[in-house]
Design goal:
Strand content: under 5%
Number of strands: 0
Mean pLDDT: 94
Helix content: over 70%
Order of helices and strands: HH
Shape: flat
Low-confidence stretches: none
Number of helices: 2
């Protein structure tokens, strides 16, 4: 079985999995884990779109 992901889908998957791991290993209660995981995911998405726009505008 071959999985074909676009660059955006791969980045989204990386952000999701990283956020889950960071939330689980760094916080003690479930509510803290959920909030921190969502915050990390939001930061990953913000960085993804921000860097994407910088690359788009810098390419000319």
């Amino acid at each position: 079985m071959k999985v074909n992901l676009s660059h955006f889908e791969a980045a989204l998957l990386l952000a999701l999995l990283s956020s889950v791991v960071l939330g689980v290993v760094t916080k003690k209660t479930d509510s803290e884990r959920l909030r921190y995981g969502l915050r990390c995911f939001g930061y990953f998405m913000l960085a993804l779109f921000g860097i994407g726009w910088v690359m788009y505008l810098g390419h000319g």
